[in-house]
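Re: the pair you flagged

First of the two:
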Amino acid sequence: MDSFARRIVGDRRFERLIIALIVFNGVLVGLETSATVVARAGTLIEWAHHLILAVFVAEVCLKLAAVSPAWRRYFGDGWNLFDFTVVVLSLLPFSGELAMVARLVRLLRVLRLVSALPRLRMVVATLVHALPGMGHVLMLVALLFYIYAVAGFHLFHTDDPERWGSLGAALLTLFQIATLEGWAEVMRSAMETMPWAWLYFISFVIVGTFVMINLFVAVVINSLDESKAIQASRDDAEAGPGTDAALLAELRAARETLARVEARLSARTP
């Protein structure tokens, strides 16, 4: 049974079937937002959800059977644990006021596409790996916002108390400026009473927006390179020493072929 399960789970067609069902589940969840579609095909959509859930349950059972009895190998993988949790939540009998929870759980199934595609898993792993580096960048951003908020309070709270009348209001205004949404209007309002106020706003936009975004991008790119290096080392480890032996055998064969070619050329030379 375990060998049969391993063959099924390791088959690329089975993997593609699961990916197709996850995408189809996402389409169904989107169709449920249309009252017209639900009125016409609500029962059919509900049966499709049940069928998809049955396949997902079968997938979990097959993966557990493939590693039986060493089930720690299955639950030791965070992605497998995520898939198992989503399937278990989908099996819970939500009804009545909790019917909305059941719909949200169905939406969670769409996230299984991340666990099904290795490239998406690498992107998520990169973001998680980048969190420590992002923490330091966030500390720098928080310090920058605090300094500019206190400075903005002292500079503009008298003329524009709605935007700069308190530290909290100043922080919200700076957040709006950082999104580059209507910041020019805020700057012109301040320049009506303080013509050189553009120095404050321009410097914050350059440092607080462009520089900080580039720092975040740099941290993510660095983490992506590290994730690729880790994945490459894991692939080499899984390949094992047999790969080196195969390369040496190919090298020996190439040397023998080269030696035969040199011998033929020497024999033809007068």
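Second of the two:
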Amino acid sequence: MNTATWEQAVRWFRSQPECAQAVCQNYFDLPVRNAAERYAQSEEFSEVLRLLGIGNGRVVLDLGAGNGIASFAFAKHGWRVTAVEPDPSEEVGAGAIQSLIDETGLNVELMRCRGEEILLPDGSFDAVHARQVFHHAASLEGMVRDTARLLRSEGKLLATREHVVDDDVQLAVFRAAHPLHRWYGGESAYSVSTYLNAFKSAGLRVVRVWGPLESILNFYPGTEVERQRLLRDLGKGSWGKFGVCLERIPCVRRMQIKQVINQDHTPGRLFSFLLEKP
């Protein structure tokens, strides 16, 4: 179909009674302030803060900021935030971000433009946060290149919850299963190597790559307790009666997780990336 706007697609999603839990898990619920408060207190954002730190006046670009939940959370933790969002929606776009700014007075500057159209000087930001952004890019390499330009030396880019596929067949399967793609047509995904090549081509150094089970960043809406329980269960099943002991060894545990990730070919599975500008 692909005729709806993103706002219309999300409104349809909200209207489905069976999707009520998923609406909240995706932070699509209204009022946006409630969703933003919940995200700011989430285990996912706690991990974002662990990786990027408290702001203390540093400047972060929230790329593809959506309804502003991450911009709100960063500003509450001392970051000076520039939120970039082209969609004008009052519910899921720039209008929602402006409402959060007006309501809270938090230190957020809003730019209503695409990620490839940010007219700011090179090296403007200490960090860039991009939650579920790059797989929406018209040109992955182009958006990554433009984003890297805006980072200062030793600045960090944290790209989280990017959809991954192995090939075009998986991409088609992922799109067919996505509840909103058939309405607005904006979902895509790439292989891990395609993401990494785009980051490296832009001159960024790869610091960490996390697969679906390796971080709460990807495991949400599951909890960290649930993630750890699953990892323990995987360890027990890997080497029979010895698994319980072996999974306590950090290097063995990492090997187990990597083995599971390498065997996972679910279309649209989630990966996150931490990059640094030399």
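The chain has two domains: 6-217+265-276, 222-261.

-B.
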